[in-house]
Amino acid sequence: MQRYKGTRELNYRVLSNGNKIPPIGYGTDIAKTWRSANSFPTKTYMFIKQYAKSIKNSDKRSIKIDKTLPRIIRNAPQCNCNLFDTARAYGGSEYVLGRELKKNFSRDSYYIVTKLSNFDQRERTVEEALRISLDELALDYVDLYLIHWPQTETYIKSWKGMEEVYAKGLCKAIGVCNCNIHHLEAIKKGALINPMVNQFECHPLFTQEKLREYCHINGIQVMAYTPTGRMDFRLKRSKKLEIISSKYNKSLAQIILRWHIQINNIPIVNTTSLEHLIDNMNIFDFELSAEDVKLISSLNVNSRLRYDPDNCDFDRL
Ligand SMILES: NC(=O)c1ccc[n+]([C@@H]2O[C@H](COP(=O)([O-])OP(=O)(O)OC[C@H]3O[C@@H](n4cnc5c(N)ncnc54)[C@H](OP(=O)(O)O)[C@@H]3O)[C@@H](O)[C@H]2O)c1
Q1: CA of 28 to the centre of ligand 1 (A)
Q2: pLDDT tens profile 250-301
Q3: CB 3.0–4.6 Å: which of 83, 94, 116, 243 could bond 22 by disulfide?
Q4: pLDDT band at residue 69, thresholds of 50, 70 and 90?
Q5: pLDDT at position 152 over 80
Q6: 90 is annotated as an active-site residue
C-alpha cells in the first residue's frame, strides 16, 4: 500500500510534543446520513441494524450508521487518506471505523482522532470515556484525543483529565475543539500541558483570522472542520473561485482544500463519494500563488455554518 504521493509527506505537521500529524483528514460524522435513513434501500437498512446489534458499549439510541462509511474507509489508504476524525457523538462511527481499519490495515499506517462528548464530560471521568472509545475503536490508544466542546461548567476540569489520560499513554496527543481565544486562555491558566490542537469551523466564508493567529503564536495546530463550507452555494457560484479553479485546472474542492494547506490548517473533510475522496486527498501536486491564497481569504464574510460555542445549548450537541 502506497501511503504518500507527491509532496504530501513533506506537508506533515509537527505538534508541540514533537509528534507528526498528516496534513489532511477524513471526517466520519455520519449522523446526517442517518437522518435520511428512512429513504435507504432495505439492504442498507439491514446492514445498519446488523452493525447496531453488534455494538456492546454504545448507547443504542444514538447509533447512526450508513453503508458509505465502511466502503470509504476500506479504500481511503489507496486514496492517500490516513487520518480519520471521529467522535463519541458521531453515532456508531467509532465502531465502524475501528473494525474496518483493523481488518484491513496495520495500526501504524493510520492516524485516529476521537473526542470526549459533552454527555461524557458531565457523566463520566475522561479516562472512563476514552476507554469506551478505545473499546469501540478496538484500539489500545488513539493518536489524538480532543474535548468536543468547551461546555461551560466542565471543560476546565475535563482538561485535567485529558492531561491524565495523556500521561497514561491512552492517547498520543491532546487538544480541544470549538475553543475561542478566551476558552484557550482559561485552559492555559491551570494547565500543565497546553492543547496541541484546536479543531474549529474554518472555510473561505468564515476564515477565523484572529483565532488562527492566536493558535499559531501559541503552538496550537489548527484543524479546520467543515473545510469546504459544505460546498455552500456562495462558494459554488463564486466567479473568483471559478477563475482560480480553471487557472490551476483543479476542482473547486481541491482549490479550497489546498488553500487550507497553505494557510497551515489541517482540513477534515467529509464525503460520501470515493471520486470526491480521491480529489480531496490529492492536492499536493500544485501550489496556489500567494496572491490567489489572499484572494480566497478575501471571500470571508464571517458566515458561521455550524454551532457557535459561545451561544449554543451544549446538552443538545
Ligand atoms: N469538532 C466539531 O465540533 C466538528 C463539527 C463539525 C464537523 N466536524 C468534522 O468535520 C468533518 C467535515 O465537516 P462537514 O461535513 O460539516 O463539512 P465539509 O467536509 O466541508 O462538507 C461535506 C460536504 O461537501 C461535499 N464534498 C466534499 N468533497 C467534495 C468534492 N470533492 N466535490 C464536491 N462536493 C464535495 C460532500 O458531498 P459528497 O458526499 O457528495 O462528496 C458533503 O456534502 C465532519 O465529518 C467531522 O468529522 C467536527
Answers
A1: 9
A2: 999 999 999 999 999 999 999 989 999 999 999 999 999 999 999 999 999 9
A3: 83
A4: confident
A5: yes
A6: yes
What is the C-alpha to C-alpha distance for residues 174 and 39, in angstroms, rounded to an integer? 38
- What value does the mean pLDDT of the chain take? 89
268 lines ligand 1 (CB under 6 A): yes
Does residue 116's CB lie within 6 angstroms of at least one atom of ligand 1?
no
Q: Which of 156, 12, 30, 146 is nearest to 95 (CA)?
A: 30
Give buried/exposed letters for 254-287 (b at 16+ CB in 10 A, else e): bbbbbbbbbbebbbbbbbeebebbbbbbbbbeee
- Distance (angstroms) between ligand 1 centre and the Cα of 228 equals 7
Residue bearing cell 461546555: 151
Residue 3: the pLDDT is 37
Residue 273: which of 281, 265, 263 has the closest Cα? 281
Which of these is catalytic: 90, 95, 111, 166? 90
Q: What are phi and psi of 174, to 5 degrees?
A: -130, 150
Domain layout of the chain by residue ranges: 9-302
Question: Domain 9-302 in CATH: superfamily?
Answer: NADP-dependent oxidoreductase domain (3.20.20.100)
Assess whether the C-beta atom of 271 lies below 6 angstroms from ligand 1: yes
What residue type is assigned to position 274 of the chain?
L
